[in-house]
């Protein structure tokens, strides 16, 4: 970057020197200034000015892990987000570790890559402790709004509302833990007139109902084929899995994951450096008798326990 800027300055100086002593010096200087401005604008995200600040039209692509088996769900969600669909709120639910966040990230990236009809796309990673406050902070930052730390939530909501009321937006809320009052945060509620959309992920179908989701989508566990593909992608050792004895043990391990992506990713990573048949036998035995002792599985069980307790 520094080299490119140095080269730009050198070329600029050359233009100035070539213009010295000629009647067109002022014009040359003006053109150079315009070129410099164009270069600076290209480095920034395109923006639209509003009453409350500047709305960034483009949104960043989110790096995601290896994705398998969500093509059908992707198609369903993208159809919901189309211009023809009048329903405004979609709730995506399922147990922890099943792939809700990955689906949401894939949707975000798909819209950015292939384009969309919204004026602004807003991604919010939710917080369990500060639901509505998290939304205000994230949306405010996305819209380029500013406020004092002591400013009330009502004032912040008013600024957000003024910035969004004439815009067609898509709000993506990942990992919602409790009911969110959109109006209280300043986000206009999606309807047929404004053609805006809100999509959120949660572990509870009851929360989907409380949030007024007009369309509810359950993220299912992976089918056997996709579960094996995801596990193999994390092991990274194709030569290992070509061994008939180790492949048989790997299939046992995959079957015990029950199609849960987080478990498959965790165990695949744990087995990536196990090169002997004895190690794979030991791993399958531990997984059968004391699964919590496998590296990373405590976190998996904590997520499953939460989902089970909330059934």
Automatic annotation (TrEMBL):
<dbReference type="GO" id="GO:0043531">
    <property type="term" value="F:ADP binding"/>
</dbReference>
<dbReference type="InterPro" id="IPR003593">
    <property type="entry name" value="AAA+_ATPase"/>
</dbReference>
<feature type="domain" description="AAA+ ATPase">
    <location>
        <begin position="86"/>
        <end position="223"/>
    </location>
</feature>
<dbReference type="InterPro" id="IPR042197">
    <property type="entry name" value="Apaf_helical"/>
</dbReference>
<dbReference type="Pfam" id="PF00931">
    <property type="entry name" value="NB-ARC"/>
</dbReference>
<protein>
    <submittedName>
        <fullName>Disease resistance protein Rps2 variant</fullName>
    </submittedName>
</protein>
<dbReference type="InterPro" id="IPR027417">
    <property type="entry name" value="P-loop_NTPase"/>
</dbReference>
<keyword id="KW-0611">Plant defense</keyword>
<dbReference type="InterPro" id="IPR002182">
    <property type="entry name" value="NB-ARC"/>
</dbReference>
<dbReference type="GO" id="GO:0006952">
    <property type="term" value="P:defense response"/>
</dbReference>
